[in-house]
Amino acid sequence: MLQAIHNRLDELYAEMVDIRRYLHQYPELSFQEFKTAQYIADFYEKIGIPYQSGVGGNGVIATLKGGKPGKKVALRADFDALPIQDEKDVPYKSKVDGIMHACGHDGHTATLLTLAKTMKAFQDNLPGTIVFLHQHAEEYAPGGAKPIIESGAIDDVDAVFGTHLWSTTPFGVLQTSKDVFMAGPDRFEINIQGQGGHGGYPHQTKDAITIGSQVVSQLQQIVSRRLDPLETAVITIGQFEAGNAFNVIADKARLVGTVRYLKKDIQEQVIHEMENVIKGVCVANDASYSFDYKKGYPPLVNNAEEAQLVLEAADQVDEIQTAEEVKPVMAGEDFAYYTMEKPGAYFFTGAQKEGHHYPHHHPKFDIEERAMPVAAKTLISAYFKFQEK
Fold first, then answer.
1. Minimal CA–CA distance to 132: which of 124, 148, 28, 14?
2. For residue range 91-108, what is the model confidence (pLDDT) as tens digits?
3. Which listed site, 46, 56, 197, 379, has its alpha carbon 20 to 30 Å from 35?
4. What are the structural domains, with CATH classification, of the chain?
């Protein structure tokens, strides 16, 4: 049956591409994916699979109960977009100004919808139950995974699998981990209050730009000089806002950034060290400050047994030439909440377009669409592997 399923997915490839390209043209931001959620619900209505809408917010969950006894397994896809201007020159370019699918969630949705349509035809011979879990708001904390879990909608699920179409991994390569796979991504904001003044009289001021620059420089030394070299963390300043004229010394500075970590104790150490650095610099310069640190998703930790099933499933997919365990990446994913609650594993499906090397969250981001049926085949193969446990 598995080979017949794979063959049917290949037959539906053109439809899968059409779905992905339609969604790519009409992206919606996190927590605002109302039309996308309706599109997903309408799809399940049309193919006759029962579903729930409004799960934990904008989530949509469809359930296909097989004709044979077995376990209940969720397959997850996210469907939100990002506040980025689409700069690609393609027919399916985003039609929504300032918003685009710059992370492949349109492809994830097309993959899962087409897999659902495929599996409907095999329902009578299907062991167990497939839960097609369409999750909103992966890109922006608090995210959609946690409220979906809190809704109780997957309480009786035995395992959860998910994949990300990964634009920097070559087509035909699958990557996963049997332990920590993705980092915990946090966000922080620092506001420095100095004293502005005339650009020709710096001695009469407390230069917020100079103070902010010292903070940026010393924050970078936390990882290089205050953490164990064998531990992993990242501190990135993504925004530095200050000043409004060439001849005026700024009185305020605003710094916004992210911290990435793999272990809880490292997260806490970084927060403590950041507070010390900011306070020390500001006290030395007779300035005041505020430090707002928001903890995001936890690190994504795969279950070793389920990750092994993914690797074994990859062996059943003809297009996958390499299935490998890799070191953790410092991007974050709220799929982490699922593996905290249920056995499960997340993996990357190589989706790099030939000659096209733009990373995720880039204005020219795109995917190799042939990776979508590969992702679908791996997900359903992992589903069957789990049924055999």
1. 148
2. 999 999 999 999 999 999
3. 379
4. 2-181+299-387 (3.40.630.10), 184-294 (3.30.70.360)
